């Protein structure tokens, strides 16, 4: 069956770059048109990237008019991020921190029994560096460690996705057939009429309440394959503060540190 449309899905129209002068400053932005959108949404991400989500057939004139109306806010956010401390390049070294469930925890290298050479406990990531380097067959850590770390994150995300779906599904009144995490670059989740739910493994990097929101959102789509008032009322019945959670997610950057561009 055809996968239903949802706000987490990437635009079916290729994004394109745009530039516009706002109050005397030239601002570059990424335009992401979508036939599913009826309004214009503007996001300024850490690092100064401006993303504009718009209806697919919106003419350039009205779009630029909206951007100019929002110029004070856009420029203020750009200035805010420009003044923020620059995070140094991520290095796989003792004491470097990794994100997990909305917090950051330091790496500690040690000898570990077991196959994976990785354990989380006492607010630390315990990694058997010798074993990881041996498995990398001479590759530098920045080339081979991310794959092993991602594998651990995905396993954690899968377990949490299943437990959350089991907890919230009865509250929504649905029974998903499959709940699975995937490596999705531009969507947080999706649901199909067959009862299959896919979730982005990067949600395990966010606070637990954000993961809850995406799970509930997709579960509600198994009853309402739309974004009608009835759908949002169903979400609100389970999570009354869903709007705050959605706002946090829209502004968040859940890119793993090794994938973030160097400053």
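^ Assign residues to that structure.
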């Amino acid at each position: 069956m055809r996968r239903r449309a949802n706000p987490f899905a990437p635009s079916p129209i290729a994004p394109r770059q745009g530039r516009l002068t706002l109050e005397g400053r030239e601002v570059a932005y990424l335009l992401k048109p979508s036939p599913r959108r009826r309004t214009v949404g503007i996001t300024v991400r850490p690092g100064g990237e401006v993303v504009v989500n718009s209806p697919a057939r919106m003419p350039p004139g009205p779009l630029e008019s909206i951007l100019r109306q929002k110029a004070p806010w856009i420029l203020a956010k750009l200035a805010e991020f420009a003044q923020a401390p620059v995070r140094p390049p991520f290095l796989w070294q003792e004491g470097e921190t990794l994100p997990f469930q909305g917090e950051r925890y330091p790496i500690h290298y040690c000898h570990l029994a077991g196959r994976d050479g990785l354990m989380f406990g006492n607010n630390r990531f315990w990694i058997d560096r010798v074993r990881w380097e041996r498995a990398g067959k001479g590759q530098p850590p920045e080339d081979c460690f991310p794959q092993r770390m991602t594998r651990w994150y995905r396993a954690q995300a899968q377990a949490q996705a299943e437990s959350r779906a089991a907890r919230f599904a009865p509250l929504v009144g649905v029974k998903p057939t499959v709940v699975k995490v995937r490596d999705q670059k531009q969507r947080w989740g999706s649901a199909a009429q067959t009862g299959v739910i896919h979730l982005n493994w990067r949600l395990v990097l966010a606070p637990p309440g954000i993961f809850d929101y995406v799970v509930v959102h997709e579960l509600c789509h198994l009853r309402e394959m739309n974004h009608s008032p009835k759908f949002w009322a169903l979400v609100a019945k389970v999570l009354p503060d869903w709007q705050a959670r959605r706002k946090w997610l829209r502004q968040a950057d859940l890119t793993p540190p090794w994938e973030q561009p160097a400053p």
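The first strand starts at residue 16 and ends at 22.
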